[in-house]
Amino acid sequence: MIYLETETYSAASRLAADRIAELVTQKPDCVLGLATGSTPVGAYENLIRRHEEGLDFSRITTFNLDEYVGVPKSDPNSYDFFMRKNLFDGIGLSAASTHIPDGMAADPEAECLRYEAALAAAGDMDLQLLGLGLNGHIGFNEPGTPLDSQTHCTPLTASTRTANARFFASLDAVPTQALTMGLGTILRAKAVLLVVCGESKRAILDAALSGPVTPDVPASVLQRHPSLTVIYTPEAPHSSK
Ligand code: F6R
Questions:
Q1: Across residues 137-144, what is the average pLDDT?
Q2: In the 8-state DSSP scheme, what is residue 202?
Q3: Which residues of 142-176 are buried (b: 16+ CB within 10 A; e: fewer)?
Q4: CA-closest residue to ligand 1 atom 10
Q5: Which pTM was predicted?
């Protein structure tokens, strides 16, 4: 494992973007696994700047970790909307090269199987970017999720719904279910980049990296990944998005 600690969120975001930009330069047709939430917003801003300076993203393919169930793409709270606003539009990516589980699918189980098949057909992620939930989740793999899980439909815990309520009009408006890559899916990435910002996540990060590998702390499964880079800063993300 490579562990990097920075003083500021800006520095952590720059490091994360550098790692992604390096991969895109070395392998212009790479497959990137991406995350939403507040953590990666700074890295995405850096990548948009790199694109404006000439970095070509036109041949990459992306797969997002997760999507809420029942939130249409046109809704600003959908992860599809978030990705277009915070990254895809800024680096010139069209829907054809980006993949996000369809939270509006009539048959969520079939959608999860379709997503796994699309990932496998693309050769899985060259690099998976992850944030960390306060309860140790990665993607929406909540505590108790089997360590070998594949893309699946999951109920969201009270902790996760409360943490994400800041984006919604009220706690009641936060979706109760999501589609998410599984822990086994994430482990298939050739490299993993875990970015963790804020003192409030220090304890769960320590548990994930140094405690037992257990479904109780889903991110602990990353100890089994042969190519894990962790970037930690005590500073919380600037964005409240
Ligand atoms: C987002 C995701 C989640 C977040 C995690 C941290 O696609 O899968 O696991 O990475 O909840 O969220 P933030 O960055 O908002 O603290």
A1: 97
A2: H
A3: bbebebebbbbbbebbeebbebbeebeeeeeebbe
A4: 131
A5: 0.97
Can you read off the two tokens belonging to residue 48?
Answer: 């948009």
> At a CB cut-off of 8 Å and minimum separation 6, what does 165 contact?
171, 173, 174
To which H or E segment does residue 36 belong?
none
pLDDT tens digit string along 172-195? 999 999 999 999 999 999 999 999
Position 134 scores a pLDDT of 95
Q: Which two tokens stand for residue 87?
A: 């990254």
**38 Cβ closer than 6 Å to some ligand 1 atom:** yes
Q: How many helices (H) and strands (E) does the chain have?
A: 7, 10
Q: Of the residues 9, 66, 132, 200, which should be mutated to test ligand 1's pocket, given the most ligand atoms within 8 Å of the CB?
A: 132
